[in-house]
Design brief:
Order of helices and strands: EHEEEHEHEE
CATH class: Alpha Beta
Helix content: 10-25%
Strand order of the largest sheet: 1-2-3-4-5-7-6
Largest sheet: 7 strands, mixed
Structural class: alpha+beta
Shape: globular
Number of domains: 1
CATH superfamily: Gcn5-related N-acetyltransferase (GNAT)
CATH topology: Aminopeptidase
Distance between the termini: 20 Å
Number of helices: 3
Number of strands: 7
């Protein structure tokens, strides 16, 4: 499977539908469903983000997003970040929307897409930080390569947050530049 940067926004609807398919076969299956998100899962950051896709036989089977932001208030579900102390440098980078099609899981696509996002950041000569949310199992793996947990997500702070939360999802930070 090849991972590539999506140079055009025309395939984003396919990415949105993939997100619903991936979340439908996960612990979030009761919250992110095709009925609830008939046009796929997207938010206000899509067109300003850099998107990466794992492509197999012409189909997108994995995707991840990277967004440069100047304010925490611009984050989707920004209230969930309000109880943690974040670095003050601006701008910063937000790693988000990493999903893999259930049939394509088990090929290290998540780690490979993380590497692609860091490779992109190396080209920007960014000296700030990156932020993400991650489930406990992923947070443990990312801690081994330099990500630091700042605290647990508190989904009660934002009723629109569409994922299972709280104690099993963490807000992570990583200093840049970073060599993964």
């Amino acid at each position: 499977m090849k991972i590539e940067r999506l140079e055009s926004l025309e395939r984003l609807p396919e990415v949105y539908r993939l997100r619903v398919k991936a979340y439908s076969d996960s612990p979030c299956s009761s919250l992110v469903t095709p009925d609830r998100y008939p046009n796929g899962l997207s938010d206000h950051l899509e067109e300003m983000s850099v998107h990466f896709a794992a492509v197999d036989s012409g189909m997108i089977v994995g995707s991840a997003r990277l967004t440069k932001l100047h304010s925490v208030k611009n984050l989707p579900y920004s209230k969930i970040f309000s109880k943690v102390v974040l670095p003050t440098e601006r701008p910063f980078w937000f790693f988000s929307k990493l999903v893999v099609c259930p049939a394509a899981r088990g090929h290290n696509l998540g780690e490979r897409m993380d590497r692609c996002r860091f490779d992109f950041l190396k080209q920007t000569e960014s000296k700030t930080f990156a932020l993400m949310t991650a489930k406990k199992w992923r947070a443990r793996k990312l801690a081994l390569v330099g990500w630091e947990a700042l605290g647990a997500v508190d989904s009660s702070l934002d009723p629109a947050y569409p994922y299972h939360s709280s104690e099993d999802t963490f807000i992570l930070v990583c200093r840049l530049p970073y060599d993964i």
